[in-house]
Amino acid sequence: MAAFFLFLAGGYLVGAVPTGLVVARLLGGPDPRQAGSGNVGAANLYRLLGPKAGGLTLAGDALKGALPVLLARLYLTPLGPWQESAVAAVGLAALVGHLCSLFLGFRGGKGVATAFGVLAVLTPWAAVNLLAVYLLAVHRSRVFSVGSLMAAWLMPLAVGLFYDSKAYLLMAGIFSGLILVRHRDNLERLFRGEEPQI
């Protein structure tokens, strides 16, 4: 049980690493919290510093979700029937770390890439289908947030269709709710026709 709490804390701390801020500093760009949309996620880094910055931020944020659950899956096997729930909790901790980062005054990104990293390890078929939905929505709308919102809305459905796991389904439902709440400003701008296009 002690190992579970260590992974829970580790998941939060890994998730809390502000990838976008690190990438911006390494590339000599502005502080993303003070420029563009004010967000530290990949979309804002893409707008501020281009595809390289956006891609690095996206990869780093996804890795923050994937790495903790991958390690938890490997090392929490002694928990037996509770392992699946414990691993899902570690994934949730990583997402909460990203959304409420200790290193950013308990503020953070919007969670899409980090949630995808968790799902890519735990529910890869759901992740592949959600990625397809995201890419199609962004291609058709030319708006990053439309893809994020569509993928978030469909997340529990995708996990439920491909996996018979109550723990993973609950995790996906919480992920969906948190991501949608984080995108409330984007929704308002979409309704006003003010959301920036690619």
Walkthrough of the structure:
- This protein is mainly α and 198 residues long.
- It has one domain (2-192).
- The chain is built from 10 helices and no strands.
- It has helices at 2-16, 19-26, 42-49, 51-75, 83-99, 112-122, 124-141, 144-162, 166-182, 184-192.
- The longest helix is centred in the N-terminal third of the chain and has 25 residues, at 51-75.
- The protein is globular and about 50 Å long.
Task: Provide key terms for this protein.
single chain, 198 residues, mainly alpha, 10 helices
Helix content: over 70%
Indicate the structural class. Answer: mainly alpha
Global outline: globular
List the secondary-structure elements in sequence, H or E.
Answer: HHHHHHHHHH
Terminal Cα span: 46 Å
Measured by DSSP, the beta-strand proportion falls in under 5%
Record field, number of beta strands: 0
The parts where pLDDT drops under 50 for at least 5 residues are none
- What radius of gyration results from the CA coordinates? 16 Å
- Number of DSSP helical runs: 10
What would the average pLDDT be, to the nearest integer?
93
Largest sheet: none
What is the chains' assembly state?
single chain
- Count structural domains: 1
